[in-house]
Amino acid sequence: MKSVMIAVRVSLLFMIVCGLIYPLATTGVAQVLFSKQANGSLIESEGVVIGSELLAQSFESPKLFHPRASAAKYDPTASSGSNTVVASSDYAAAMAEKIAAWKLENPKLTDIPADIVTVSGSGFDPDLSPEGAKAQVPRISKETGITANVLNDLIDHMSKKRQLGIFGEPRVNVTELNMELLKQVKL
């Protein structure tokens, strides 16, 4: 009976420490040191939350930059990759369909960066390569009347470099890029 009481006390202690004290402490530290990230890295426009820096959103307008394709159709409650085998005929057919759709929407596009037509692992990658964004410039320029030079400069300005100079790839957040585009020109 004595060993049962010790086990119950130790269990209660660990439940309090691990289930209450530790989560409250880490949440408090995160709120103090990394408030924006702890609250979802939200993007606001005129006081209204319009999205998160961490999740891609669908942009249908030909006047805006389009993000990577999403296996989850941009639904944050259904996070998933496609799980399609790259060597399968289904994958090849899907890629051919996406490439054809991009060529139809962007007729001046000769080289299609891979990230434009491939799905990210989570299905919510908010970033495109600068090349992926620049591939859309002719379409956006035609639709908005904004010169290609202005759009390319905007992409260069909004692009993020490799972290610490070695980790990751250069990238541009499509939601932030579109927000900046909308600030500069009323569409």
Q: What can you tell me about this protein's structure?
A:
The strands form 2 sheets. The protein has a two-stranded antiparallel sheet with strand order 1-2. Helix 7 (148-158) packs across helix 8. The protein has helices at 2-33, 35-38, 89-105, 114-117, 130-134, 137-144, 148-158, 174-184, and strands spanning 42-45, 48-52, 127-128, 172-173. The protein has 2 domains: 1-39, no CATH class; 41-184, no CATH class. Strand 1 (42-45) and strand 2 form a beta hairpin. It contains 8 helices and 4 strands. With 187 residues, it is mainly alpha-helical. The termini are far apart. The system is composed of three essential subunits: KdpA, KdpB and KdpC.
Rounded to an integer, what's the Rg over CA atoms?
22 Å
Spatial arrangement of strands, main beta sheet: 1-2
Oligomerization state: single chain
Mean of pLDDT: 87
Structural class by helix and strand composition: mainly alpha
Output the helix-strand order.
HHEEHHEHHHEH
Terminal CA distance reads 75 Å
Portion in strands: 5-15%
Uncertain runs: none
Number of domains: 2
Q: Roughly how much helix do the residues carry, as a percent range?
A: 40-55%
Individual helix count: 8
How would you sum up the global shape? Answer: elongated
> How many β-strands, per DSSP?
4
Biggest beta sheet summary: 2 strands, antiparallel
Subcellular location: Cell membrane
Subunit structure: The system is composed of three essential subunits: KdpA, KdpB and KdpC.
Membrane topology: Single-pass membrane protein
Organism: Paenibacillus plantarum
